[in-house]
Amino acid sequence: MPTYLANYWRVPAHMATDVVEGQWLTEPGTLVALSSVGIAFLLDESIRDYWQDNIRSDATEDVSNLLFEAARFDVAIPALLAGYGLATVTGEHYHADSLALVAQSAVISQVGTNAVKRLAGRHRPETSPEDSSRWGAGEKAFFSGHASGAWAVATVMSYRYSETPFAAPVSYGLATAVSLARIDSDDHWTSDTIAGALFGYWVGKTVAEHSPFPQRNAYVLPMMDGDSTGIRLHIAF
Q1: Distance between CA atoms of residues 66 and 27, nearest Å
Q2: In sequence order, which residues have a C-beta less than 8 Å from that of residue 49 and are 6 or more positions away?
Q3: Within the chain, what is the greatest distance between any pair of CA atoms?
Q4: CA gap 48, 146 in Å, rounded
Q5: Which of 86, 96, 138 shows the shortest CA–CA distance to 117?
Q6: What's 55-101 look like in SS3?
Q7: Residue 155's closest CA among 230, 194, 83, 102?
Q8: Which pairs from 232-236 meet CB under 8 Å and 24+ separation?
Q9: pLDDT of the chain along its 237 residues, tens only?
Q10: Taking the CB of residue 51, how many other CB atoms lie within 10 A of it?
């Protein structure tokens, strides 16, 4: 537990070190990630106009509102704490450890996001629909906190349950849905959500890589071979 608590400052320190030393530049996909944000900046207004005119509907608005409420920090953290308590009481320590890491990634991602929001001060599309380059003190569009939190959580979950079929697709699928919901509700530009997703992924990856908890090395997987089905035990050494 002391190491886990210390990671609340060690993880940001590791991330800062990566930036200063330029290690992030050697990561696979870095160029693609940065390019995607840059392209999104150039297309923000066009994407916003097309989405609001051709995609947004009462149905998408209902889904966006649902995802917004579910991903709120003051809703997600109590839910995680309740899940952690239940897992601990029932002896499911691996799940409890995983939820602790999820909470850690959520907290760190939101602290970092709010710091950037205050420094950047970008106007939201609903207040500046014709000018995505409008920046000013007090505005908090860049980058999306919902996107960063969702992707931080998804990354930890996909790492901790990498042996579980569909864990990664479901986790990242939900994170993508949360990100798109912020575009649909006209609260964020596309570049806000992409940048938030990348930051969240970075936080989640760093949290998972520096986890003080053991990774599960034995698990059961479904098996399908022609007409027969069953399960198999996988043990990693």
Answers
A1: 35
A2: 129
A3: 63
A4: 18
A5: 138
A6: HCCHHHHHHHHHHHHHCCHHHHHHHHHHHHHHHHHCCCHHHHHHHHH
A7: 102
A8: 234/163
A9: 788 999 999 999 999 998 888 877 777 788 889 999 999 999 999 999 999 999 999 999 999 999 998 888 888 889 999 999 999 999 999 999 999 999 999 999 999 999 999 999 899 999 889 899 999 877 889 999 999 999 999 999 999 999 888 999 999 999 999 999 999 999 999 999 999 999 999 999 999 999 999 886 545 445 555 555 555 544 444
A10: 17
Query: Distance (Å, rounded) from C-alpha 65 to C-alpha 213?
Result: 35
- The first and second tokens of residue 27, run together, are 């990561």
Token pair for 128: 């500046």
Work out the number of other CB atoms within 10 angstroms of the CB of residue 73.
Answer: 15
Angle, to 10 degrees, between the axis of helix 58-70 and the axis of helix 167-184?
Answer: 120
CA 18 to chain centre: 19
Cα–Cα dist 142/149, whole Å: 14
Say which residue the tokens 């947004």 belong to. Answer: 56
CA distance 207 to 15: 10
Q: How many CB atoms lie within 10 A of CB 136?
A: 11
Q: Token pair of 72, please?
A: 């709120």
Domain ranges within the chain, ordered by starting residue? 2-235
CA–CA separation, 137 vs 135, rounded Å?
7
Cβ contact 174:154 at 8 Å: yes
Q: Record the pTM.
A: 0.88
